[in-house]
Amino acid sequence: LQLWKDRTIRHAHVDLRAEKPEAAMISSTADSSASVRPVEGENSTASDQSLRIDLAVGALDAWFDTMRGPDGYGGPVSHWWQQCFMYTGAGLDWRYEGIIIGYLNLWRSTGQREWLEKAIRAGRDIVAGQNHDGSFSYSGFEMNPGRNGTPHEAACDLALLMLARELREAGDEAWALYADVAKQNLQDFYIARLWDVHFSQIGDSMSGSSFVPNKAATASEALIALSWLTGEDTYIERYVLPTLDSILQLQVRDGSACNGAICQNSFGTNHVEKYFPLYISRCVPGLLQGYRVSGREKYLDAAVSAMAFVIRNINEDGSIPTVIYPNGRTSPGPSWISPLGDVLRASELVAEYEHTAQTSRILDRLLNGQDETGGIQTASDFALQSVGNAPSLPDVRDLLHVAGWCDKAFRYLTTHVSGGPVPIQPIGEFERECQLQGKRFVTRESSERLEITANGTTGYLWIKGEPHPRQATREFWLR
Amino acid sequence: MEYRYALDAVSAECWRKGPPLIVSNMPELEDELEFRRITDRGQSLASIALWLEPVRETLSADLRSISSGLSPSGTVMIVASLPLSRLLPEKRANGQRALGCELTGLNHLRNALTSASFELRESHGIHSITSIGLNITGRLLERIGRSDLADQFAATARERYCSYGRTGRFATLMLISAQKNRRQQ
Q: Could you please report the per-residue DSSP string of A206-220?
């Protein structure tokens, strides 16, 4: 732990630029003004870009407020693995990672108390949703309703620990509550139930040796944050570093086109050779933290190599294939938009150590996905995920604004605001023609509702804040 | 998965119409009901009833209790396994009692509903035979190194998970909705 602290002092200047709460976790005497850095776009000046980001962040914040219900941030989910249209209540999942850390970023850069209050409000959602066994309610994201969601609970822990750190620095004794909740989850769920003794790694299953690198990386980040906050560095030696070593075992290092890629998962010694750039990007922060706490170059090398693989696969339009297969083929759809925030974040973290290619195309794609609601759309070409011809209209799932994806954009963008007051953005009404399973619909979203109609008949109606849609025809039962 | 899918579909109806009358022969689904905030309506008349896995032994009694606890024009939503589910390993172990698993079980259930003055409205097959076929094909493609195509088949299988109309019978589970006839009162 001491080694980590020593090293991070050396890196403090770059960490500040990368992400303020994490950076401040490393050095509490940081000058937050040093963190303000415009993103360079190819066709715009730095100040234009900064204004664009301020506006985008203001609109996202306004949209997030419309997604709150009694228990927290809700809404339907579209995802590669499954959809979740039928549970729309609060999800205590990785959406809270980006929301809480994003608001902390704003608090740090603007000094406006309202952002810290929003982070605290979100932290309270998680505290209220903790079960007796330490797990969080509705932590399944696309698999909701359910609990024991991974990496979702660790992502909540990480956010709570960031919040706790911030409050502790501010002299607010409430910090201990958030730290305790995260610690209970990490100990009683991740360590007590997911630690795989046989393979020495944080697994993904309470039975059998299932391992998912990006999920384990998130858990590692949370355990490192816990170590820092509590001073108990045994978490790092005993759990984090062996887990990161397992991630390295799943990385391709053969000089092929897939060099640097990390397999999606493994079952025992059986590696599933599919490469998801988004998930590979989510391995990067954990690997870099591992490097910082241990000084072992292999983690830095793995992070740099992983990001190089992701960057090599960026298309001209800033899109990245969702899956790259060992045979060189790529998934035709969906192609992420709002989730790209995590790719940009990882890219910047790596850029502190190694030159990486311009990612402005990704940023443009991300910002262009924002519409009248203030939310950012999830993807393009969702319909191409299945067998069939390309439809002429976007898929309903493309157009959805999902709290657990927009948080990733929010988290990234809040590290690039100007530092002045974030402009208050009015929420507009959004309306687009679209399709789902070959049927034409029109989707409309306002601050109060999401309604999807076919020929004037309601197919799906969700009143924001409610735990279920009031109406859903069978197309929306889709998982 | 198929039960979760069916309960998802039911959850929106229950949210819209209020707490249901629950008649369940599947105690293992209690957590899933709780996750969806589907709780029994208590003593008052319900405008919706949820009947999980009717079984032959209690069919008449369950139907009577639903009929008396349901408001006029109320809806009963029935989740019943179908004979195809016997192919599933988990069903071989514990699904023997389900009426819907019997070859003529579904007809028997429908007749019982009609006799009790319920009008059948809709039925949906869940975990359809098409979906099963697509998943099997996907696994074969995976084995020959075409995981890209396998993923496309898996996504298509999810889209075809629910079938409607005459093909609904060829699935592992059925979600039936029936409306109580006012004249019954």
A: SSS-EE-HHHHHHHH
